[in-house]
Amino acid sequence: MTISKELYSAAQIALRDCMGLQPHEKVAVITDAPCRLIGQAMFEVTKDFGNPVFLVEITPRRTHGEEPPPEIAEMMQTMDLVLIPTSKSMTHTNAKRSAQAKGVRIATLPGVTEDMMVRCMNADYFKIAELTNKLTEMMDRTSVIRVKAPSGTDITMPVKGRKTIPSHGLFREKGKGGNLPTGEAFLAPLEGESQGVVVVDGSMSGIGMVEEPIRIVVKDGYAEEIAGGAEAKKLIELLDIHGRESRNVAEFGIGTNDRAKITGIILEDEKVLGTIHIAFGDNVTMGGKVNVQSHIDGLVHKPTVWFDDEMIMQEGKLLV
Fold first, then answer.
1. Which of 261, 273, 289, 309 counts the highest number of beta carbons within 10 A?
2. Cβ contacts of residue 129 below 8 Å, gap of 6+?
3. Do 133 and 168 form a contact (C-beta atoms < 8 A)?
């Protein structure tokens, strides 16, 4: 397995700059077959920094948000730093939340590719942090978020009292964590209160690029009707694996990474500057009340977004 200089450098940035790796910290890299190259690069960089490091490969999960084996969850709690490049996201799992509660710093890299690592890890994360923090402050003052888009999205999401999470790529303090590469501000809308229509016309986690838009009718906070082509059928199948709570409107997020581009891999797509994403399923990680082993994000192109009465984005152009 050959690790390019560019990938090695990107892994160095992730460990040194984003995670703030300190001498003698214990590190675990958890990966699976599709992301094995990224896992190996992170293992090699950590080893070269002189830290004790464990590389573990697990069987790919069925859905984003499905728990790892219990032995892995237990091991995570004994580390200082955990890196998780896997094909299915472990961001919204009890394993990650429990380890963070014990002070472990965690970066999840679901579906990460070499191209994505090299391009996005070379972004200016201090600039991304500035924009992400500004949007976070604005969202924290907002009671209702509304989104409209040319493809038919028109949804209102009450969010009053919910804390916004800035995922700016700097996870250096005990218990901190998030995606890498990153760049988004997101929160959990109030359960049972979102109303309207979401038309996913970009990409969707677990599905990829959407050829025929997926039309999702939201009533009282749940995806009650899903229509479209083959991708809509696939979404219904994924949601049915874990039951009704998988249909909960779990997240609203805005991308803030100017180096990210839409590739069909949601890890990068949802970070693209000028896009928004709405997710269904688990929202406990972001302060919500729904705990389910599923979290599926859908990307909306050219959104117009209001925080209460203030338009902050017009057809994909951020006005902040």
1. 273
2. 166, 168, 169, 170
3. yes
Question: Of the residues 76, 95, 120, which one is the last residue of a structural domain?
Answer: 120
Domain boundary among 63, 96, 120: 120
134 and 89 fall within a common domain:
no
76-109 confidence digits (pLDDT tens): 999 999 999 999 999 999 999 999 999 999 999 9
Same domain, 107 and 150: no
Residue pLDDT, tens place only, 52-70: 999 999 999 999 999 999 9
Same domain membership, residue 187 and residue 79: no
Q: Is 292 exposed, middle or buried (0-12, 13-18, 19+ CB in 10 A)?
A: buried
Q: Report the Cα–Cα distance between both ends of the chain, in Å, rounded.
A: 44
Q: What's the Cα-to-Cα distance from 48 to each of 137, 192, 199, rounded to whole Å?
A: 39, 49, 46
Domain holding 171, by residue range, is 125-318
Q: Are residues 136 and 282 in the same domain?
A: yes
Domain match, 266 and 155 both: yes
Could you tell me how many residues make up the chain?
Answer: 320
Q: How many domains does the chain have?
A: 2
**Contacts with 77 (C-beta within 8 Å, 6 or more apart), sequence order:** 98, 99, 102, 104
CA distance 240 to 80: 36
Single pTM value for the model: 0.84
Strand 154-158's sheet: what is its strand order? 222-227, 214-219, 195-200, 154-158, 144-148, 304-307, 310-314, 317-318
